[in-house]
Structures are given as C-alpha cells and as structure tokens.
Amino acid sequence: MEKLLLLGAEAIAQGAIDGGMSGVYAYPGTPSTEITEYIQNNKTAIEKNIHRNWSANEKTAVEAALGMSYAGKRAMACMKHVGLNVAADAFINSAITGVNGGLVFAVADDPSMHSSQNEQDSRFFGKFAMIPILEPSTQQEAYDMAYEGFELSEKLGVPVLIRFTTRLSHSRAGVQRNEIKEQNTLSYPEDPIQFVLLPFNARKRYKGLLDKQVLMEEEAENSKYNIYYEELNLSGEAKLKTDKSFGIIACGIAYNYLMENYPNRDCPYPVLKIGQYPMPYKKIEKIVNECEKVLLLEDGYPFVEEQLRGFLDKSKKIKGRLDKTIPRAGELNPDHVAKALGKDVKAELKIPSLVANRPPELCSGCAHRDVYNALNETMREHGKQKVFSDIGCYTLGALPPWNAIHSCVDMGASITMAKGAADAGVRPSVAVIGDSTFTHSGMTALLDCVYEDTPVTIIIADNSTTAMTGGQASHATGRLEEICIGIGVKPEHLKVLTPLPKYHEEMVKVLREELVYEGVSVIIPRRECIQTVPKSKKEKRIKTEEVV
Amino acid sequence: MKADIILSGVGGQGILSIAATIGMAALENDLHLKQAEVHGMSQRGGAVQSHLRISEKEIASDLIPLGKADLIISVEPMESLRYLPYLSESGWLVTNTTPFINIPDYPDMNELLLEIEKLPHHIAINADEIARKVKSPRSSNMVMLGAASPFLDITYESLERGIQKIFGRKGEKIVKLNIEAFEAGRDFAIAYTPVGSS
C-alpha cells in the first residue's frame, strides 16, 4: 500500500477509514478537528458513504457512535480533551454497556494549553471508565492504533480510547497504509438487555467490566506498543553496556523526546516504552525492581508516575514531574528530557528584549469587532459592569483594545453564569455566545432563563460557522430564531441585527433598550465570518454555474 | 544530510506553503521528514512557527531541541528573532524585512534590523518588494524559500518540482510566477553581503 505524509490527526482518520469504520461523530475542537475534516474530504470515505457530518456537541457525538456500535458497525467519536468532559456521561456508561460493533474514542489533549482552557489528561478518564487506552508515539502508531482499535474493542467488548497530544496531532510524517477492511454488516447485540442499564442489569454489566480487567491487563502486557528495552538498545541492537543505576519509562510521544537525546539510540539505561493501558504491571515491576532510580516521561499529567509513587513513598526512587525533575505543568519537549538526563541544553542566543508579544486577535473586518464596539458603548452607560462570555473567536474580545468580556469557562457557560449573576441581583446581566457554541451547549441554558423569565440579555454573535477551529458547519445556521422562539423567547425581545460600522447607532439603540428589559431578551448580530465568506461565495457561484 | 528548520511568521501569512514545498522536495529525495505546525487560536494574527526536520536517518522528535536548528526562515522580521534560542551557533537566519504590524508596541524598525544584523549568519531580504518587482506580489513566501534555498541540501530542481506540485492545481501561470519569485529570492541570497562585513 502507498505511503502518505499525514498529520497525526489525519493518520488516525486514515487508520479508521482503512479499519472498516462506518461513521465518525465529532464536534470541532483544537487539536482534534483535523480527524473529521480529513474523513469529510477523503475519497474512499465519500465513496463508501461513511457518516462524517459534524455533531451538535461531544455528548451527542459519543451517543451517536454508541448507537452505530449497537447496530453492529464500527464507529469513532473524536474530540478535544475538554470535549470529553461534555461527553463524560455517555463515555463512562458506554464502558458499562459495552459495544457490539467496534467503538473507538479519539481524544486529543492539549498540554501547555495552546488553544484550551486547561491541560487535563484524558488517560485519567480512560482509567475512570476502566477501558483500554492506546497512546501513539508516532504518526504511524496513530494510524495503526486506529486501524486495530476497532478489533480490540470488538475482542474485549468495550470501547477503546486513543489518547494523543497536540504535538503529534499537528505534526506531519510518513505513514504506511494497510489493506482496507470491509465494514461490518448490520446486527443487533446478542444479549437483548446489554444496553439496558437498569440497576439489576447495570450491576451485572459492571461486574462483567471488572472481570474483563484481567483480559485488558493481559492485552497490555503482551502489546507490541509496550516494549521493555533491557538488553537491547533503542534501535533493537544488543547493548554494549547496561547501566541499571537508572531506568526510564516513556509514555506515548515522550519516547521520541528520549530517543532524540540518543542520536545513535545508544541509551545505556533500561527503557520501558508504554503505548497501551491498563499499565503493563509486570514490565513496570521489572524495571522498577531492577533499577536504582526510575525516570518517568509523560506528555501531560504525571499519570503513571502518581500511580507508581503513591503518597507514602518517600524513597525518592521515582523521578518525574512530581519531584520537579520535569516541570510540573506544560508540554513535554526534548529539552526537558535532556535536562532530566543531566545533559547540556545549549541555547546560545537569547530572544532580544525588543521582541514584543503578539497574541491572536479578531481578524480585520470581523463582525465581532462591531458587536463589541456597540456593546462597550452601551455597557459604559451602566458603569463598571461585567459581561459573561464563552468559547470561540469572540473570546478574543477579552483582550485589548476591547476588554469587553469578563468570563470564558466552558461551552455554554456564558448564559447560565449570566443567569446566576442576574439571580444574585446583577443588572444588566449580559452573555455573549457564538452561534455554534449556542447550539453546542447554550440551548438548555436559555431554557433555564426562559423558565424563570430571568432578566438577562443574551447576545448570540452569529457568524454562521464554527470559526475558531477553521470554519466548520454550524448547526445553528438558518434556524437560530426558530430555536429561540421554540424554547420560549418572546418574539418582541428577539432582535436580529447586522453588525457593520454603518449600523453602529442602531445596534446601540437596540442594546440600550434590551439591557434594561426585566426578562429574557436575545439579540442576534448576524454577519458571516470573513474567513468563510470567500469560500461560501465560491460554493454558491459553483452551484449557480451548475444550474446554468 | 540533516536539516532542522524553524519557519516563523504571523498567523495568516502562510508559512505552511514554504514548509509544504520543502516537504515535497524532501519526499522526492526519499528523505525522512517531520513537520510540526501550529493550528488553532494563534492562527488569528498571532505568532506562529513550524518545526521542519529533514534527515537521511529516522527522525525522533517532532520538535527541534534548543540550539539545534540549522536554519530559521521567517516571513516577518520581529518573528525571526523570537526563535533565536533554537538556532545553532553555525545556523543561518533568513528573514523578510517587511514588518507585519498588528500590535501597538511593535519595536522600532531600525533597532530591529540592527538586532538581525548582529547575527554572524543572516540574510535580510525585502521579500515583499522583490515579489512586486517580479510582478508576483503574492509570492513573497516563495522569495523567502528562494533566499533560504542555498542553505538547504536539496537541489534547485527538486525545490522547483516541489513548487510545481504545491501550486500545480492553481494553473501554469501561478506556478510560473512562484518559480520566478523563488529564483529572484535565490539570486538575492547568493549576491547578499551583510551590512558591516567587508
């Protein structure tokens, strides 16, 4: 088969397509977005009509994937780490129900928070759900793990989590493909109550999951992704000498950073490379018992390290993030590893002091700029008031020159936080949320406001796309007013505006009126994202040409 | 052969087309390649970089270690300096001198150029102006690739074929404009004498 140059995320996508997947379900989120985008544009996926439309959020994505698995077919749900929080209920319970068709969750963590609110490590979620976790170190392993993940899931009868980080997701390298597997045929689960988690059956299913742990541990112990390099060096040749004063456990991409520090792959210490969990306990016991000290290399939280050390261990035998051998927070890199190994890191040149920070900003011509100009002018009339906001491009309104918003917590939180503040007595209480974030997790928040007719002003900044992640389709496009009216917003307090400098006065007037209204009002400033305008105009033109 | 390259610029300036072209040429020569990119929030006008590693041998890390880069190619002058700790002592810095000013505290241009000229191995090129001169104003990226090409252990022909592959679907005219921009950048670099050198 051919060799491709793929991002880690794309390698997972290609692996899943070749592995006989019938559908992918996802909500965009950096650094996971490219998995689904790749499948959407892939010729084979289109020909085989693999399901590849975006879902409203990560929870609906996981549930739809579980439904496809119920029907006997192979499905994948993809998300960023914080998306797994949204999907957690479905995710954890899918381990209890188990699967019918193979089910893979591909979750991308973002250590150093390049584009995220936190750097939580999804391996904890995998352990929490008690399912196997695969953690690739290379693009090739990312491909192989997705390709083989469905079969592992079917063999064990549980979903499988592929956990990877930003660096692998957004780095390109050569990937060797395998033969394409056929998709599964439609079939119901053999046990008619497998998916009925009523207490009597949930207890039975949970016991089954506990019993399966032994099998999962055996799989991990014998996995080709968990390799103990004791007598061999990292290129598989016999070691000239083995120095057991030190042992190294490297998980996922951390293994690459270790190798980088041994250009000839001649690391004298025993090395355990981990790419599959539950942890390979026997191999870990061996390296820990044989070596005087053990260094843990993990890109993310000290997941393995904490389990090895426990809080009672005062022996200082285990080195890693917890004892600051590696910085406690942030992305791992080859330089951290070099320092931990006692090697010199030579950065001769410094960044000159005149180099200024260059944070991201709203694009020139972006509609959010006009929304914030109008909002700031109106809010000034109310003194030093705060505005609750959400996750998307418009979050950049928290930075100068706007300083227009004062919260960004989780998807949909702007509306519910504004409600809580209004309940506490804040007037005016204002939320700014994007159209895609609104349909992701804002609709139920709006329902809470409508239920009590809470005095909040909700601005749904509608740019008709999921902009921050690169312009994916938004479920809200063309139906925002219907949704709001359907939820119960009074039509006279649902206002649609066009955010352009020439309509500034009109926007200010509408905002001024609605901010003092003692009930729910929704304002929708609507103008398409300037990044997607050329694309959608082009598509329209092509469509018109086709009609002609 | 080994080349560790940092590409830098501002989100939206399109440093990835330079990376993609070098990548194509590397693949044609059966070289190993790893290329780490920045996606997401920073693409909105923030500082962006890409680590591009090419080697005859298998490459371990997706990130270049500090002090190990052979080359920094920057499409923006201030951004070229942001990654100096990655540059090796013998490494070259090749940068565009046309600033992209989207922040209020952008440094003084003369001081900025002085900082660049302090480096023993640098090429400062007004890629935007050269691109306009060869009547391909949108090809300043390819001017930069051309200016960096003498420091790449990849043949001129391979890089040219890389440009053809990357821009091929946009038509012959676009390919030609980009190759002309590439050549102009290359000619400039070969003739370049840093300020202050004799």
What is the gist of this entry?
With 548 residues, chain A is an alpha/beta fold.
Any idea of the CATH class of the largest domain in chain A?
A: Alpha Beta
User: Would you give the CATH topology of the largest domain in chain A?
Assistant: Rossmann fold
Strand order of the largest sheet of chain B: 2-3-1-4-5-6
Round the mean pLDDT of chain A to the nearest integer and report it.
95
CATH class of chain B: Alpha Beta
Mean pLDDT across residues of chain B? 92
Trace the largest sheet of chain A across and list its strands.
2-3-4-6-5-11
What does this structure look like?
The complex is a heterodimer of chains A (548) and B (198). Chain A is of the alpha/beta class. Chain A has helices at 8-18, 33-41, 43-47, 58-70, 81-86, 88-97, 123-129, 139-156, 166-169, 199-221, 254-260, 281-290, 303-309, 334-340, 367-380, 413-424, 435-452, 480-487, 504-515, 533-547, and strands spanning 3-7, 21-26, 74-80, 103-109, 133-134, 160-165, 171-176, 227-229, 246-251, 271-274, 276-277, 293-297, 318-319, 387-388, 430-434, 456-461, 494-497, 520-525. Chain A has 3 domains: 3-221, Thiamin diphosphate (ThDP)-binding fold, Pyr/PP domains (Rossmann fold, 3-Layer(aba) Sandwich); 227-340, Rossmann fold, CATH 3.40.50; 367-533, Thiamin diphosphate (ThDP)-binding fold, Pyr/PP domains (Rossmann fold). Chain A has 20 helices and 18 strands. A 6-stranded mixed beta sheet of chain A has the order 2-3-4-6-5-11, sandwiched between helices. A 5-stranded mixed beta sheet of chain A has the order 8-10-9-12-13, with helices on both faces. Chain A has a 5-stranded parallel beta sheet with strand order 14-15-16-18-17, sandwiched between helices. The model of chain A is unreliable at 542-548 (pLDDT under 50). With 198 residues, chain B is of the alpha/beta class. Chain B has one domain (2-98, 112-191): Pyruvate-ferredoxin Oxidoreductase, domain 3 (3-Layer(aba) Sandwich). Chain B contains 7 helices and 6 strands; from the N terminus they run E-H-E-E-E-H-E-H-E-H-H-H-H. The longest helix of chain B is centred in the last third of the chain and has 20 residues, at 172-191. The chains are: A alpha/beta (548), B alpha/beta (198). The interface between A and B is large, with 48 and 50 residues. Strand 7 (171-176) of chain A pairs antiparallel with strand 2 of chain B.
